[in-house]
Design goal:
- With about 280 residues, the chain is mainly alpha-helical.
- It has a domain of about 100 residues.
- It contains 9 helices and no strands.
- The longest helix has about 55 residues.
Length: about 280
């Protein structure tokens, strides 16, 4: 309400509490800044041109790699098959037609063996002289000999696959055993240090956050050596800090985490730090 005779005040329009924030303007990183000296402008332009050329090369290479990868996947090409085909093409380009012919005949021999059909000028039984001899002596037919040879090839391939799987299984078992031995050695080392060094809990708190990086490319048999070197380095640094920072004649101050501060909740044991997310069996 207003007093009698008082003029009416104009209405006040409410303003938004927060002003609209202008969207950031995107700038070209290769756009030359203002205020550069002529020599700096020349260097900047040279770098910009080099980056543009490099980007164009990367784009071209990525396109080529994608084409090769897609072609391999589409046709199920294995690496050894590609190398054989490249060998034939290379021999033809060099003009070594005798080698190219030999390689192609070998491929035809394998095709003849798999299909059981003979081809002129191709001896599918060349790898099996005993079968070739029986065919020449009319003891068995060539079709029967090809069937036997095909069975032998299949058995040899199966045995080779089995040997490869066995080898891979043995290697995996060896890695697991090495991993277990390395972990046991670290546990024994930690137990020994923890029982003799009163500063170990604090030193351990400094080591734990970095264990995964420290041991990333280290074989399990060297884990203890790396951890012990880290421990000795921290222990020596702590001793030097005590000698310079402790009050004269007083008791040395307890070892404190160095750097930005004590590590936050992360690993609670050396095993958890080495293998985050893993649990002991």
């Amino acid at each position: 309400m207003r007093a009698p005779g008082e003029a009416e005040k104009p209405a006040v329009v409410a303003q938004p509490a927060v002003a609209a924030v202008a969207a950031p303007v995107k700038t070209d990183p290769l756009l030359m800044p203002e205020g550069l000296q002529p020599k700096a402008q020349e260097r900047f332009q040279m770098l910009a041109n080099t980056l543009k050329e490099r980007d164009a090369q990367v784009e071209t290479l990525q396109s080529q790699v994608s084409y090769v990868r897609d072609t391999f996947q589409e046709h199920g090409i294995r690496r050894e098959q590609f190398e054989e085909a490249a060998g034939v093409i290379g021999a033809l380009n060099r003009g070594d037609f005798a080698q190219a012919q030999q390689m192609l005949v070998e491929q035809l021999r394998q095709v003849s063996l798999m299909t059981g059909q003979t081809m002129p000028g191709v001896d599918a039984l060349q790898e099996f002289p005993d079968l070739r001899g029986k065919v020449d002596q009319l003891q068995i037919s060539e079709s029967d000999a090809l069937e036997i040879a095909r069975m032998r090839k299949g058995q040899a391939a199966a045995q080779g696959q089995q040997r490869q799987e066995t080898q891979q299984r043995d290697q995996a078992q060896q890695r697991q055993q090495s991993h277990q031995a390395g972990t046991a050695a670290v546990d024994a080392w930690v137990s020994r240090i923890a029982g003799t060094d009163l500063d170990w809990p604090v030193i351990e708190a400094q080591i734990l956050p970095n264990v995964k990086e420290l041991l990333a490319d280290v074989p399990p048999q060297s884990w203890v050596r790396v951890l012990e070197a880290q421990y000795k380095g921290l222990k020596g640094a702590a001793g030097a800090f005590r000698r310079t920072a402790s009050p004269s004649g007083g008791e040395p101050s307890p070892l404190r985490p160095m750097g930005a501060g004590a590590p936050q909740r992360a690993p609670t044991s050396m095993f958890e730090a080495m293998f985050p997310g893993s649990a002991r069996a």
